[in-house]
Amino acid sequence: MENEQTKRYSFIAKAFHWGFIMLFAYGIFKQVDELEQLADQALLEFELAFAAAFLFLLVTRFIYMKKTQTSSLPATTPKLQKYAAKIVHYGMYLCLALIPISGILIGALYWFGIKSGFLIEGVISVHEFSFTLIYFFIVIHISAAIYHRFLKDGVWNSMVPFWREKLD
Ligand code: HEM
Ligand code: HEM
Questions:
Q1: Whose atoms come closest to the Cα of 40: which ligand?
Q2: pTM exceeds 0.85 for this model
Q3: Angle between the 118-151 and 79-111 helix axes, to the nearest 10 degrees?
Q4: 141: CA distance to ligand 1 center in Å?
Q5: From ligand 2's centre to the CA of 103, what distance in Å?
Q6: How far is the CA of 46 from the centre of ligand 1 (A)?
Q7: Binding site membership of 106 for ligand 2 (Cβ less than 6 Å)
Q8: Under 8 Å CB-to-CB from 13, ≥6 apart: which residues?
Q9: What are the C-alpha distances in Å from 146 to residues 7, 135, 155, 157?
């Protein structure tokens, strides 16, 4: 469409976006499958350290994005669509925060000997529900990104380094 749409995210913003996808994939790949696995103290400590680092980087990313970057949706985008994008982006951030927070709570409860009961089961439910929710948001997010790729409005190019739109 309009070729004045040349907005790009900064290198740091892209590094956060793509770096987090790798970090998140790694987190899922090495996931704890059952509570009993946490009896392995080294695994428990590693999980806690990973979750804390993940959370710290997420907060850093969020602050950096809020302070320095804006959405690359064209100014002419309908209001409703802008809200939808906001909800999906914030929704993903919320889930990305809830996952390590609930994970750390699971680990802390286990560490202090609370290995069964409604408390730890409730926190595990939050942990698992956050995954259900984020998978849902990710499907919408990637579909929307591909939709913009076909619209050729610059949104795809602003974040994605492959299958570039040719703005002529
Ligand atoms: C192949 C997969 C993906 C593509 C092509 C893609 C593409 C994009 C594009 C084009 C934007 C800019 C949107 C705008 O300016 O309004 C964006 C932003 C964003 N994406 Fe993705 N994305 C992908 C995967 C993911 C995944 C898996 C997550 C979450 C785990 C994610 C989280 C975000 C967030 C939170 C933003 C808002 C900007 C920010 O705060 O970094 N993306 N993505
Ligand atoms: C960023 C950090 C983390 C990621 C990416 C992650 C990833 C996952 C995933 C993908 C699942 C499967 C969820 C499902 O089936 O819907 C899971 C389950 C689980 N996670 Fe995590 N996790 C993280 C942190 C933690 C931490 C710190 C602990 C505890 C020390 C933990 C303990 C568990 C347990 C016990 C389950 C299995 C629950 C059950 O079904 O019995 N997680 N995690």
A1: 2
A2: yes
A3: 150
A4: 7
A5: 6
A6: 28
A7: yes
A8: 64, 65, 68, 69, 159
A9: 17, 17, 10, 11
Q: Which residue has the tokens 């428990």?
A: 44
Q: Residue of the nearest CA to atom 11 in ligand 2?
A: 31
- In this structure, the residue with its CA closest to atom 16 of ligand 2 is 128
10 Å CB burial of residue 51 (0-12, 13-18, 19+) is: buried
For 159, residues 6+ apart whose C-beta sits below 8 A from its C-beta are: 9, 13, 14, 17, 72, 145
Q: What is the DSSP string of 42-59?
A: HHHHHHHHHHHHHHHHHH
Whole-Å CA distances, 134 to 31, 50, 98, 141: 16, 19, 10, 10
**In Å, how far from its chain's centre is CA 70?**
17
Please tell me the distance from the alpha carbon of residue 155 to that of residue 149, in angstroms, as a whole number: 7
Considering just the CA atoms, what is the radius of gyration of the chain in Å?
A: 19
pLDDT in the model for residue 5:
53
What's the rounded Cα separation, in Å, for the pair 155 and 144? 10
pLDDT (0 to 100) of residue 166: 86
CB 152 within 8 A of CB 1: yes
Chunked mean pLDDT (size 10), the chain, 168 residues: 65 98 98 97 98 98 97 95 98 98 98 98 98 98 97 95 86
